[in-house]
Specification:
With 66 residues, this protein is mostly helical. The protein is built from four helices and no strands. It has a single domain, classed as Arc Repressor Mutant, subunit A, CATH 1.10.10.60. Helix content is 73%, strand content 0%. Helix 1 crosses helix 3, helix 1 packs parallel to helix 4 and helix 2 packs across helix 3. The protein starts with a helix and ends with a helix.
């Protein structure tokens, strides 16, 4: 794995955490170092096979009630 691939995976992992906490895609993209949400969406989809919005929606639908 190259440094670039490792760094991208680390950034996507951070994005997963933020999205699970309820942050929106734009805020997550900037917090994880992407210049725009489109870059996050492309990297996220390539690694996880799902878009950040779909991941967030799925988390919202499967979250246990408090």
């Amino acid at each position: 794995m190259t440094f670039y691939e490792w760094r991208t995976q680390l950034r996507v992992h951070h994005a997963l955490v933020l999205l699970a906490d309820g942050h929106d895609v734009t805020r997550t993209a900037h917090a994880c170092g992407w210049a725009n949400p489109s870059s996050l969406i492309a990297a996220f989809t390539k690694i996880t096979g799902s878009t950040p919005g779909a991941y967030r929606a799925d988390r919202r639908n499967t979250a246990p009630e408090r």
